Amino acid sequence: MLFEIDGDALNISLSMQLDDVVKFYDFIKSKLEYIESINVEEEEFATFETSALFQLLFSIKNSNPKISIPIIDRESIEFSEYGTIKWVK
Amino acid sequence: MNKEELKKIFIEEATEIIERLDIQIIDFEEDPSNKDLLNDLFRGVHTLKGSANSFNFTKLGDFVHHFEDLLDYHRNSNEEISSERIDLFLDGVDVIKGVFNYEMEIESSLPSNYEQTLEKIQLALNKKLDINEESRESELPDLSKEFSEDFTISSENEFKDIELKDTERAFIITMHLDRDSYFRGFDHAVFFKILSQSGRILESNWYMGDIPPIDKLNPQECFIKDVIVIFASEESLEEIKEVFEFLEDSEYKVEELKLEEDIKIESSKEIEKPPLSKETPIEKSDLEKIEKASKVETPTKKKREEKKSFVKIDTKKLDELFDSIGELVIAQNFLFENRAIREVESEQVNKTLETLSKITKLIQNRVMSLRMVPIKDTFDKMKRVVRDASKKVDKKVNLVVYGEDTEIDKTMVDSLSDPLIHLIRNAIDHGLEANEDDRKKVNKSPVGNVTLSAYHKGGNIAIEIRDDGRGIDKDKILKKAITNGLAREEDEYTRGQIYNFLMQPGFSTAEKISDISGRGVGLDVVNTSIEKLLGKVEIESEMGKGTSFTILLPLTLAIIDGMLVKSADEIFIIPILSILESFRPSKKIVHTMKSKGEFVNLREEILPIVRLNEKLDLDQTKPNPWDSTLVCVENEKGKFAILVDELIGRQQVVIKPLGKALSRLKEISGGAVMGNGEIALILNVEELH
């Protein structure tokens, strides 16, 4: 499961590759109005497969700031393998 | 390096960036075709934004973010920049200064025009949003190389404490991947994976400000501006660089992080400036040459720059060094005045003493030069002052700057800005004619000229503010001085004395009070500020032709050139800057006037005589002036002659602060240790008469 919708929430995985991100992009771009939050399981905060996923999440946020995306709404996140990641918005 | 230390560095660097912003904008206004200037400005703002966000200066980061967007638009567009847009840039800079002070808790609230300026910027940006993205990209200058340098400097400030194992070294890696990097198979994730196999990724900053909304995003293109990684590894710099070897050079930069605390060595691009002689006095006739030189050197016309290396040193350490040099000079004077040594008749001893003297002088000069900085930065700030003042009073003004490479003691720089601002505003508001028609009537160019020049004059620094306006009406000043009780109708006053009334508290001849100047405060404050720097202000004016205010300052505040004089067996020092001449008068030129004291007629100029022993209550003796020496000096009230027993000689003295008891004596400004170990007091000429 790379992304699945659960009611108003969308659960995604950081193990998406670039191709998966493209699919995710195609899936979500027409659904921004219906999504309330996009979540990543905290256990997943170890590594990520593509930075394209992060930029897509920021793009979603820019398009609809109401969507809660905890992974980028926070100033920083701890990745067990990659240290602290800080967002400069 | 802990976060507080990093924050301190951030504040220093942010202050430097912010101080330069309006100068860069004015330079750009003067040369709008020079996109390098706009790129320089953009780069500074960009760095400021990143650093501000890293230190949770969120209001600052937020405002600067919008400001950066506006600059970004203009640097990628060929649209002509209007004067109103420059006004908006400058308003933006004012807000940035105010928000910075707010974040620093210097100000208790955000600047009053914060919201208004932000709205104006947003409005301007909204109007520009329709620009064609394609053309925008094609015009985008490649700043990546420049950014990579900037980021490595600024990014040192953006990370928290770095804890390394004994065998590890810290690296700072900047990734600036091109838009097509995903197509080429490169992804930040790939590099994170490889790096994590050869060390520890401690922290990374992701610059996500440029990600477009989803309808403009191509998910296969990389819009992430920069990723800066702090990395700890046992591997060498070269081995770390190999990780990125398949990227373009402009897409990455790897540097080892230096964690020294006190000294940060950085290679900085600087304009190589032909040195102007510091020793040779520069005559005004030479100013054209200086102008030619300075024209070549201005940033707007800079050539390819040469690399120069700089060392940042804690000013405390410099002060300690200056103190030590002061002690060395005193110790050397001790040695030279030691009778036993002077009586030694050995050529070898004399030669050694001579060498010691030369080396001491050399070290003294070199150490003193460390405190000296070009006055350029201060002069640059005046461009904004001229622009604002000329707009406010609706007069067109041309500012001409000469000698901006003249160096001045660093400790004076901060205290010099306010007096200069006031004198420039004064020149524009009162010096220049009221309008273009008035100038045309007297055959002058419609645009007024204000000239700001710095040069060496008689071992001092002279800073001159000259206008080509209407000149000072000295009769009007005298009349006002009489009305104010500063002068008496029956007395005669020299031109200099009359001009000096302008420096008296509360004195103003302005018929209309404006918020630019003419508030009746200011020129006296200018005078007081300059006196605190052991300097003085000279005024020259010619009706119809203009006025000049010249600030004369000593080269340094730590050591002054003094004339040693003796009075009642005590030695005193008179700063050479204040002395006009000294002489032994003949009996026939000394006069006594009942209830007014003694005077000397010096070439038809009547100067009051001040007996130093009486003034300082040293003793009751009253030697004849013709058996004594008169030292002619000048203060803001005019010229007068100090009567002393004898002149001892000229000497450089190291100024030492006085204790609490002596510091109450307004006639004394400091003390100095003489070669024989005795203390001599330095006279404050302003308070002697």
Explain the overall architecture.
The complex is a heterodimer of chains A (89) and B (689). With 89 residues, chain A is α+β, with helices and mostly antiparallel strands. Chain A has helices at residues 18-28, 51-63, 70-73, and strands spanning 3-6, 9-12, 37-40, 76-79, 83-88. In chain A, the strands form 2 sheets. A 3-stranded mixed β-sheet of chain A has the order 1-2-3, with no helix packed on it. In chain A, helix 1 (18-28) links the parallel strand 2 (9-12) and strand 3 (37-40). Chain B is 41% helix and 23% strand. In chain B, strand 18 (597-602) and strand 19 form a beta hairpin. In chain B, helix 1 packs antiparallel against helix 4, helix 4 crosses helix 5 (114-128) and helix 11 (315-337) runs antiparallel to helix 13. Chain B is flat. Residues 130-160 and 260-307 of chain B have low confidence and may be disordered. Chains A and B meet through helix 1, helix 2 and strand 5 of A and helix 2, helix 8 and strand 2 of B. Strand 5 of chain A pairs parallel with strand 2 (200-207) of chain B, so a sheet runs across the interface.
State the share of residues found in helices of chain A, binned by percent: 25-40%
Could you report the average pLDDT of chain B, rounded to the nearest whole number? Answer: 80
Largest sheet of chain B: 6 strands, mixed
Tell me the Rg of chain B in angstroms. Answer: 31 Å
Oligomer: heterodimer
